[in-house]
Amino acid sequence: MNINVNITEIRKTAEEYYRNGDYYCSEAIVKAIKDGFSLDISDTVISLASGFPVGMGRAGCSCGAVAGGVMAIGMLFGRTQPKDEKVGKAMALSKELHDLFQSRHQVVCCRALTKGMELGSLEHMKQCIAFTGEIAEEVAKIAVRELK
Questions:
Q1: Are 131 and 25 in contact (CB under 8 A)?
Q2: How many CB atoms neighbour CB 110 within 10 A?
């Protein structure tokens, strides 16, 4: 794992993945964090994020970018063994990310964040690209802080 990352580059990469149509928000964040930190995990992990865009499969619930950020935190700090105490750290960092986003945007609900926007419109895309970059950057900041 590489902890000497360029946080700004991770943000830009996540935004570009979304902007170019390569990935949706949650997928872009998982891919940018995985690659930015050189995690020894297959790209198949991206598929785990595929159901979260547009508020969980277009249901409008939790913001897909936040969900992708939580998944990325899990990649870095989550557990793989039953009853491993690492789950507490992953949960605490996930709550930190959630609360930070909520403090900035008042809500974490995709439906509320995109109220009045047409799905796929320029306004919608600009906002979601920005959220994708913001979350990728914040996950990278949290990870660098916790890994040093």
A1: yes
A2: 26
* CA nearest neighbour of 90 among 64, 117, 71, 63: 71
Residue with tokens 């979304």: 18
Residue pair 62/56 in contact by the 8 Å Cβ criterion: yes
Domain count, the chain: 1
Any domain includes 87: yes
pTM for the predicted model, two decimal places: 0.96
What is the CA 46 to chain-centroid distance, rounded? 11
- What is the Cα 89 distance to its own chain's centre? 17
Q: Is residue 27 part of a domain?
A: yes
What is the C-alpha separation between 40 and 34, in angstroms, rounded? 8
DSSP letter at 117 equals: P
CA-based torsion, 90, 23, 117, 140: positive or negative: positive
| Domain around 100 | 7-147
pLDDT tens digits, 90-124: 999 999 999 999 999 999 999 999 999 999 999 99
State how far the Cα of 146 lies from the Cα of 28, in Å rounded to an integer. 22
Q: How far apart are CA 44 and CA 125, in angstroms?
A: 25
Examine residue 1 and state whether it is found in any structural domain, yes or no.
no
